[in-house]
Amino acid sequence: MKLETFFDPIQYKALFQSQLARNIFTNYLAVIWMGGLSILLIPFYLKFLGSEQWGIVAICMALQGFFNLLDAGLAQIMPRDVARVSHDPDACLKTYVIYQRTYLFLALSGFLIGQFSVPWLVDHWFSGGNSFSAQDSWAFHLVIVQFLFQFSNNANIGYWNGKQLQAMANFRQCAFGSLKHFGALSLVYFWQADAIAYLIPFTVVSAFEFFTNRHAISQSLKGSHAQPIDWMDYKKLGSEGGMLFVGVLIGMLASQMDRIVLSKYVDVASFGIYVIVANLGLAVMQLQHPLVRAFLPRMTQDLAGNNKSSFRRLAFGMTFLCIVPCLVLALLSPWILKVWIGNPEVVSEGSLVLSLLFCAVACNAIYQLIYQRVLVSGDGRWVIKTNAVILILILPLILSIVSIFGITAGGIYWLAMTFLQLIFGLLWLNMQSRATKD
């Protein structure tokens, strides 16, 4: 590039006016807004609710995260499938309806399983089966209701991501997310300081969000003609994404295993501290998602022409927006917790955990560069094998060290898991390189 071209403002104006740039910008704006809002409000929630009730909220978050395993990769392949037919409104409508029904079926299944499982979880799992009040138990039932609507809404977000209408999706997510927190903070402060007051606004707004988003998409497709859908379409979805679904399911299970194990073996207050620290550490992982969401549809289209420019741009963005910042934050973890929370107990128990989580996120960002190529290539068998091996290797690790290290075991678990992911990813990349040469 010539020097005068590099400094030409017209070039940058065209870049920032492009759809890709708008998507990346709004994706990051949404991540910063939603992540920042949650992070800024956690000290207030902890202060108003107290350690015990915040611990109940933390368990509810873990419970919802577990049932989100039912997504099993749909959120990753729906944008790809919508992008493939984005030029055909009728095909877009058919694709949206297929995924919408699939999400709704999974949401209802999770809802029923969750409601029937709560009594057993309260009596035998959470905090080692320590007794909870009847009101605490109702909080666990309520979060499953929130899951029903929030999970079903993934179909709407997946459609907009595939159509590269991410600015619209981000705006709506920020608006509804802000409304949830505003309602929760208001009820906790003005009504009653418990987990029920926290969860009611999240549940009500999640239901409203699902129905309004569904209506907006239906209106945008109003002129399209619905193509017939039969069981073969769902069979095709299962056969095409089946291997990937299983692989992602195992990977998502591995990503939730720290909270699953810790929710049983540590007390409610300590688990609440872990969730505070984990929410901050893993929130930084969200820095990857705006880039991935923006580039995945383009990488899918570039694959046909053997064009690797999108991959190179993604690697550049990941390095300077994810990897380097995470390594810097890992060194500043004690200071961050001291300024953010100001609670000596949280700083003492959580500093090392947060440093380990930041290092794990940096490791995961490197792996994501390889995983996006795996995802576009559709190598679901490899995903199953690697994620299964990783889970088999690291599950005994956290079970054996949790009694010694307490919540620090969660940070060790995450660093070990992401390091193994990276190792297996590099092996896959080497195999692909050899296959291409042959």
Return the domain count.
2
The ordered H/E elements are HHHHHHHHHHHHHHHHH
Shape: globular
Count of helical segments? Answer: 17
Whole-angstrom Rg: 22 Å
Return the structural class: mainly alpha
What fraction strand? under 5%
Helix content: over 70%
What this model shows, in words?
The chain is mainly alpha-helical. It has 2 domains: 31-225, no CATH class; 232-438, no CATH class. The chain has helices spanning 3-6, 9-17, 19-67, 74-84, 89-124, 134-152, 154-162, 166-190, 195-220, 231-265, 268-283, 288-303, 309-331, 333-340, 344-377, 380-405, 408-437. It is globular. The two termini are 35 Å apart. Mean pLDDT is 84; it is low at 1-8.
SSE map:
Blueprint: H1 3-6, H2 9-17, H3 19-67, H4 74-84, H5 89-124, H6 134-152, H7 154-162, H8 166-190, H9 195-220, H10 231-265, H11 268-283, H12 288-303, H13 309-331, H14 333-340, H15 344-377, H16 380-405, H17 408-437
Helix pairs in contact: 3-6, 3-8, 3-10, 3-11, 3-12, 4-5, 4-7, 4-12, 5-6, 5-7, 6-9, 8-9, 10-16, 10-17, 11-15, 12-13, 12-15, 13-15, 14-15, 15-17, 16-17
Write a short abstract of this structure.
Helices cover 86% and strands 0% of the residues. By secondary structure, the protein is mostly helical.
